[in-house]
Amino acid sequence: MDSQSSCVVVTGFGPFRQHLVNSSWEAVKELSKLGLGSDMEVELQILQLPVDYREVKQRVTRIWEDLQPQLVVHVGMDPAAKAIFLEQCGKNWGYGDADIRGFHPECGVCLPDGPEVIASGVSMRAVSRRAVVEGVEVAFSRDAGRYVCDYTYYLSLHHGNGCAALVHVPPLSPSLPASLLGKALQVIIQEMLEETEKTRSQRLVHRKLSLCDSRQGEPTGGLLL
Question: Contact 130/102 with Cβ under 8 angstroms?
Fold first, then answer.
């Protein structure tokens, strides 16, 4: 999106199944207290999403239409994880598990005419290498799990032309409190913004080089009559 605002939206999820406290939302609330850093000239907005396919579809659409953010970072909880995982892509199919209302998409598909996979424009492998957080590992993943988190991510990548990310955090524990996960999100999102700026600058250079190459082939003489 060429007319992006300087707004970053970060979402977390509400309770689901036996998880009455969702670490993703607790981490996002801690991030809101910290902010993105004094040197980051972007507005941070946070939102809680329900673990509900139909409601998520409406809210993700509104986020992109109403706020036109520079980047949307969705944060979900992986109950089995011991590390933070940065998901590279969202999948269009395989959504057979029911949400908190007992619903799942027809045929398990997110967008019937959409591509099988949409990848983020952010290199999660590069971000995972640079995002160093004491007390928790940050890792790279290409399988977001085919549940409401993955579904949300795919929709956001679709609406945002790849300007989205999904971060899976582990459950809260004495060694992984919300404050640590919030700090980790701050570091990770700072790296994501740097990565997107780097990519944007590289594209601008490529465009200028392409323009120069095309002009070199133009005639330089005057108009012949």
Answer: no
- Integer-rounded Cα radius of gyration of the chain: 20
Number of C-beta neighbours around residue 153 at 10 A:
27
Q: How far is CA 5 from CA 43, 50, 70, in A?
A: 9, 25, 6
Distance CA 63, CA 81 (A): 28
CA–CA separation, 178 vs 134, rounded Å? 14
Overall size of the chain counted in residues: 225
- Residues with catalytic function: 87, 149, 168
Residue 99's identity, in one-letter code, is: D
Kindly report, residue by residue over 170-221, the tens digit of the pLDDT: 999 999 999 999 999 999 999 999 998 876 666 555 555 555 555 565 554 4
Structure letter (DSSP) for residue 32: H
Binning the chain into helix, strand and coil, the percentages to the nearest 5 are 40, 20, 40
| 15-33 residue pLDDT tens | 999 999 999 999 999 999 9
Count Cβ neighbours within 10 Å for each residue of 126-152 and write b for 16 or more, e otherwise: bbbeebebeebebeebeebbbbbbbbb
